[in-house]
Every structure is written in structure tokens, then in C-alpha cells.
Amino acid sequence: MATNIQQPSHVFASAAFFQNPYPLYEQLRAESPIYKGSAFKYPGWYVTGYDEAVAIFKNKAVFQNRMPLPETTKRYERLRKLQQEMMLFKNAYDHKRLRGLVGKAFHAQMIEEYRPYIEETVHELLDEISRKKQMDVVMDFAFPLASLVIAKILGVPRKDQERFRAWAMCFIQTIDLTRSREDMMQGNKQAALLGHYFQSLIAEKRQTPQDDLISRLIDEEEISDEELLATCVLLVIAGHETTVNLISNAVLSLLQHESQLLLLKKDPTFIRGAIEETLRFESPTQMVARVAVSDIEVNGNHIKEGAQLYVLLGAVNRDPAKFSEPHQFDIARTSNHHLAFGYGSHFCIGAALARVEAEVAVQVLLEKADQLELATAEPRWRRLIGFRALESCPLYFEHTITK
Ligand code: HEM
């Protein structure tokens, strides 16, 4: 295939890409919505077209989920053992079975029961922060909120939130295409610690069950010990990483688009639209991977058995063939069918939870703030390809404490 794009692997690795990946996505899509190329050392098909992404997600018989590590790896064995038991990397019957067990706890109706707890937590955090007059949205607000909520649902001790954050960041690094050998070695080491941590927590809960998700899963006969452990790890990581990014990205996007902020302040019913638009505009998960298990043609491209596909959700969600004015942040956008939570059989289990957390967090923040201003001209993004995650987002923030 002819290409105008110079060394895409290097472009992916540039500082400019991490700050703003969208120009590269445009270039790739202009070349082909399914572009054959390479990011870092990972050759494959890079998907930037919306219709192409949906076609791939729909065909789960051919495009399957695989853990990023080779099944035979000895070097990172602890990490491999953990990854291979996660529903995210399973297919067909095993995937359906695990998802069925865990999914019940995350249905929208179940999640609504946590709304009062989420509201109370947001008020408490903001009252605490207001004493400082300045905050980092990521570490002072979004992270403690997401951490406390997932801890409550799963039944993990609140006091361990710093450890979870470190584990989540480390694990995310092992599945991102930017991963280095050191990241993998570190991830393998941390996988052992995570394993021990959850083994003893599960043993405690077997002895003294509580009203939480881990205790309920222990009672299920259809889940093996290894799967239970991996499920705990997956949920803790998912609960700590992506929701933090959704909340932070929403606050940043609103502060960078004054007309949209004013609109939301004037009419708070736009909150749902604001969160959906953030999911589309700064998708917290930017990439998901699939492997073709047989030869297949998509949009005139011959994809061979064993080929890797990388669906760039951040690009798909700005495909002009699907979204009008895709680079505009528009909280009043109608028919916003973004793919930020994926699509089809692996659609995010935590979508309802993430939505409620983000809606409450942003709404209460805006209601309470007397002053809310970015304290930096250009916040820095983490060096990740698969996730849109702010390193930090400092704000001037003040409000009158009411309680
Ligand atoms: C804004 C927040 C979130 C985003 C953007 C997000 C995004 C995604 C995406 C794109 C997938 C699909 C992966 C694929 O197709 O390969 C996924 C799957 C998943 N997510 Fe989320 N997620 C978020 C929050 C959460 C939360 C809070 C939880 C749970 C605590 C969670 C748990 C999961 C699980 C367990 C899966 C695997 C589902 C399966 O394989 O069937 N996510 N997520």
C-alpha cells in the first residue's frame, strides 16, 4: 500500500502525538480507515473508521480478544497467568460465563443504588479540597472518588487506595503499546504482589463474608479460584484508571470550551450530554486490540489469519463520516453513538458506573464552585497510546463550605 506518512512508528512515539493524537489519526484515516502500519514495534491494521470498527467488533467469530503477552512467555509468567484469566482476554463460552457472573453487579439499576454514596463522597472531597484553594483534578478529586466507589462495590479496604493506584498505573503500562522491557518486568513483579494481596483478601472473605461483590463471587460455583483473582484485579484496575480519566477529561474539556461550560451552568440538564461528549471527544480508552483468527476481507483489505488489529477508538469517535464537526466539543450534540465503551460482546461492564460517577462529580463541582479556573495553559498528558490520561490538571478552586 502506498503511504504518505513518514515512519508512523516514530510519529506515534513523538511528544506531539501524546499531547494531541488527533492530527495523526486524521492522516491515517485519509490514507485508509484500516491502515496497515506499525506503532513502535507492533505491526498490524490500525483502524480509524467508524463503520470499519463496528464491522470488526460485530464479527466476534473472526476478530477475537487475546492477552497482549504470548501464551508461552516464561519471562513474565506471573503477569501472563493473571491476564489469561481475565474476561477481557477471553472469548466464546468462557467469556460469556464470566461476564454473566460479574455483569449483574454493574447493571444500571444496581449502580443507581450507589448514587447517594457517590454524591456524599463528592461533597466530602470538595469540602476537603476547598481548604487548599487549589487542586489537581486527577489526584485530589477524580482518583479518590473512583477509588472509594470501586472499593465500596468490591469490598476492598479504603486504606489501600494508594497501592491500587500504583498497581493500576503499572498494569496499564504493560498492556499499552508504549510498554518497555522494564515496564513488563515491573508488571510481572507487581502481578505477584497483587496476587498475594487478593489471595489473602479472598481467604478473609471466605471466612467472614460481607455484603460486597467479592463475597458474592466467592459463592459462585462457576468461577475458578484463578478467575476470581483475575476478576478482582481487572475490576480494581478498570475502576481506578479509566473513570479517573473520564472525570478529569470532562473538567478539562469544559474549562477549555467556555461556551459549553456556560451552557451547562445555565442548564444543568446538559450534564448527560457533557459526559457523552467527553467520552467521544477525549475517549479515556483510545485503543482496543483484536486478532483475526482466519483470513478475511474488510473494506477491500485482505486481512490474514493471525494479523493484529488495533481499533483506535479516539479516532473512530472523530470520524467525520459518522460525526458532524467531529473536532468540536458540543455538549448538545444529538445521536452521539460513540464507541468509547467498545461495542458488542466485550462492551464495557462498568459503563453505567463510570457515567454516574462522572455526572455527579462534574455537576456537583460546578454547583459548588465560586471559582474554577485552569492553573496551567496546557496540562500534560501521559505517554500512552491506548489511554487518554492527564498526568495532572491543576485548577484554582474555591467554594463556600455548606456543611
Ligand atoms: C470511563 C470509564 C471507562 C471506559 C472508557 C471503559 C472502556 C472500556 C472498553 C473500551 C472496553 C472494551 C474492551 C474491548 O472491547 O476489548 C471495556 C471493557 C471492560 N470494562 Fe471498561 N471502561 C470504563 C470504566 C470501567 C469501570 C468503572 C469498570 C469496572 C469497575 C470497567 C470494567 C470493564 C470490564 C470488566 C471490561 C471487560 C468486558 C468484557 O471483556 O466483556 N470499565 N471498558
From TrEMBL:
Family of the protein in this entry: Belongs to the cytochrome P450 family.
UniProt-listed InterPro entries: Cyt_P450, Cyt_P450_B, Cyt_P450_CS, Cyt_P450_sf
Q: Which SUPFAM superfamilies match?
A: Cytochrome P450
Which superkingdom is the protein from? Bacteria
Kindly indicate whether the keyword Metal-binding belongs to this entry.
yes
MF annotations from Gene Ontology: heme binding; iron ion binding; monooxygenase activity; oxidoreductase activity, acting on paired donors, with incorporation or reduction of molecular oxygen
What organism does this protein naturally occur in?
Shouchella lonarensis
Quick one: signal sequence residues?
none
Q: What is this protein called?
A: Pimelate synthase BioI
Q: Which UniProt keywords apply?
A: Heme, Iron, Metal-binding, Monooxygenase, Oxidoreductase
CDD domains listed in its UniProt record:
CYP164-like
